[in-house]
Fold this sequence. Notes:
Elements: H1 27-34, H2 41-53, H3 58-67, H4 76-89, E1 92-99, E2 105-111
Antiparallel strand pairs: 1-2
Helix pairs in contact: 2-4, 3-4
Amino acid sequence: MDPLSQFPVGPDTLFDTEVRARTTDPYTSHLAAGTVNGLRAKQAAVQHVLYEHGPLSLAQLVRVYRENLDLPDQSESGIRTRAHELLEKGLVVVTGERINEGGRRERLLDVIL
Length: 113
């Protein structure tokens, strides 16, 4: 049995525009590209925090993210930017609002399951 036969890449998907590989790349590059979910490591880390601890406001997200030393290092603005990117991709949604300690309204974010 061909060890590559377990991957769903063949003549019909080899040049699929959704796969992030050039048409001139070798077959193995198309296999690897087909496994990419489109998220960068820092986006995936923010999504993981929301999955484990959500729903969270942006301020809560930053605090919880920074408490977890296993995650990639990001600035506060970087964490907020990654959260907004996930919102734009439709992988995170606003699930409600809360009033923070200063009396201001904050949106609560959570992942889509």
